[in-house]
Specification:
heterodimer; A: alpha/beta; Peroxisomal Thiolase, Chain A, domain 1; eleven-stranded mixed β-sheet; two-stranded antiparallel sheet; 13 strands; globular; B: 399 residues; alpha/beta; 2 domains; 12 helices; 34% helix
Amino acid sequence: MIAYVKGVGNISPQMTWRDDAFSIRDGDQTGNYLSAIEPDYAAWINPQQLRRISRILKMGTAAASIALQEAKLSSPDAIITGTGMGCVEDTGKFLDKITTLNEEALNPTPFMQSTHNTIGSQIGLMVGCKGYNQTYVQGAFSFEHSLMDALMQLDEQPDFNILVGGVDEVTETYSQILQRFGLLKRETPRSMDIFSSQTRGTILGEGAAYFVLSRTAEGSNASIQGIKTLYQPHAHELHDGIDSFLAEALLNRNDVDLVLTGKSGDAIADKQIDRDVNLRFPQSSLAVFKHLCGEHMVASSFALWLAVYMLKHQQMHEAVVIKDAGRPLKNILVYNRYYQDHHSLLLVRSC
Amino acid sequence: MNQVFVIGAGVISAIGNSYSECLSSLMHCRSGIAALTTLDSIHKGKLPVGEVKLSNEALAEATGGNPALTRTALLGLHAAQEAVKDSKLPDLGAWRVGLLSATTVGGMDKTEMFFPAFMQDSKAGKLKNVVHHACGSTTEIMAGYLGVKDFITTINTACSSSVNAIMMGARMIRHNLLDIAIAGGTDALTRFTINGFNSLMILDDEPCKPFDANRKGLNLGEGAGYLVLASERVIGNLQLNPKAIISGYANTNDAYHQTASSPEGNGSYAAMKNALAMADLKSSDIDYINLHGTGTKNNDLSEGTAVKRLFGEQYPRLSSTKAYTGHTLGASGGVEAVFSVMAIDNQCVFPNLRFKTAMPELGVQPQMEMQKTNVNHVMSNSFGFGGNCASIILSSFKS
């Protein structure tokens, strides 16, 4: 199951929506969360629609449009979306009104836009895609399961172009609740400093990244060679899982040029990632990404975007490298981890 | 491609707490729609809904779960446990097993308890009431009790979610990624959905009348329904006797409006047509359609139009069982897939309760009474917000 990446679109806390203008900036940070840097959506969304839809829908539809443009497609054959939390802003808004208005005279718009599949269906509506439309909501596996589905679709329908993405938004309310659960850092370091903070917790982020996948290599810089999720693995299951995952692609650890890990700035979790992943790849370059996008349930979609970007430019971005082994970039292993339970692997290769 | 077999089914809804109770109610025309009793809502005592008659405490006791869990998880666990037991699999751990579950509300029933206090003061509200808010958390709770770890996923495509979960389970078996898939969906009644549908003005203030000319809207319901799907290898190794096979399915999008269906029923037409093509069946091969049939003006006209476009005047026997259960949202495709298995297993079709007058635009006449008849192929439709349409065909094993 292999897929070539034909187009990418990414709206994140960095300047990522224009490939030629990718620049790292000290994110737009409020307390313990990073907000996306949003483009002028008028370039992709008509003004009438722009007034009606929520922020997560703007991010999702714009990222999808950018990916389709890059792939020179007006509409894909299938749309698959992963979102861990869905439309939390509209969900919160409707919950708020139920209480304050005591269940009377409610405006239906936030309810209509609260279901998780609103993102994928708005894209379908915008581009007139009447084909397969699916939404995975499995926490930090939402994007991974979307990719798995896309790879299966390409086996079933080899001539398809599939739009697949991960979208999650952050709100003040959501960050307050995660803070109370002790999942975020108590102090508020700048995002760029999270790896040196030596404390527990992380900072929150958000984003929307869509990819056009197909079976043909033409015009593509990178391919997805495999995807695997590991739920609540013991250390030895993680070690074996990584080795068997690489073996399925006929690789061993020495063949991996760059390991891109989802370190989150949590001092203990990051030490485990060093022990269970990084130290087992002594010959590979090492990199991180969550200081750029923040922690969120579809952060792996940001990592895939970053891997594709680096393969295309055949250069590791200085803002992400923690060890440069001086190797040309062919195989990138993305290892993501969301808190304790959700671990995933993605193998991305240059074309 | 591998064949996918149905080897177990479990369901809980307003008309019964088990497969046999629901079957008995369907056969004896016993509706489960009555005025809301449980939720702390201004609609309590008035609005007709399809409530499951077991409390969270009773669900917890029956499942071995914790009564503090979300109702969505408890309902799901109850039905999924019944499905696994029904499958008579001696050892779930011997196979690659997946749990693919649909839900639209997830832990919203508990989040509603958290939110009012939290709105007053962001340090208030009990965190235990919001810890399982996310849809995926519902499935992880269920997987923990069921002992499933290999693959756990959740799908939310609004009211078509469960059929998409069953479809994904079948596809993973066909792709040899799983041996067994426990697939379906669960949703509890919440103030969130009741007020949401009420704000859209599509709730009937009386028991609903799907496909009737004088229908006024839908009744919400709650419940869960799961199938246990298995590969040929599992069937062969264990000498199991399948209840049915999954012969066709399709997922399409209407791409017309966020919450309304196109007048021509384009999305639902394509879903039914593509499912037939996959099953390699003619429209005349379908013996019974379990309609989406919510009872709203828009859905029933659109779905009925699509049925007539595809099947012509010789459309099969058809009925909506939502007049019994209410619309169980993300669970509806799972509940109705189990009802479709019942139709095959008992060689019967269920009536469309409360139907009097055909829609003048179409003249579609649903099934009026419980009838014993040959049922080899059943089509079950589920359509949702966002134009998400899904159709699945279950066939008798002998066919």
